[in-house]
Design goal:
Distance between the termini: 17 Å
Largest sheet: 2 strands, antiparallel
Strand order of the largest sheet: 1-2
Strand content: 15-25%
Helix content: 55-70%
Radius of gyration: 19 Å
Shape: elongated
Number of domains: 1
Number of helices: 2
């Protein structure tokens, strides 16, 4: 039971990190000098873990010469797609957490 709860919590944290990174990328789509973050998810024994990798400094967003516009390195379609996927992953992890909690409660009721 503890394993299911730990895995569900890791899933919630991973999805939250992905949403935060994607939101930051979207918010900074027109910020000069911004380096796009890429969430990299790996599987661990306790559940998924997400780390953030930044684009190299030479890939930072720069102004278009002669204008006030920034040449964005943010792909909005990819960002929004991953937001939808991350939202679904968050909901799934929340359901696992709820089910594990209910099963643990039932087990304790049986023992009482």
């Amino acid at each position: 039971m503890v394993t299911a709860i730990s895995t569900a919590l890791a899933g919630l944290n991973a999805a939250s990190t992905r949403v935060a990174v994607r939101g930051e990328n979207i918010a900074n789509a027109q910020s000069e000098g911004y380096r796009v973050g890429v969430p990299v998810q790996t599987a661990q024994a306790a559940g998924p873990v997400v780390r953030v990798e930044r684009a190299p400094a030479d890939k930072a967003q720069t102004k278009i010469p002669g204008t006030d516009l920034v040449a964005s390195q943010v792909d909005l379609a990819s960002e929004l797609t991953d937001l939808i996927i991350s939202g679904a992953a968050y909901k799934a992890s929340a359901k696992v957490l709820k089910a594990a909690s209910e099963m643990e409660k039932e087990a304790l009721d049986i023992l009482a």
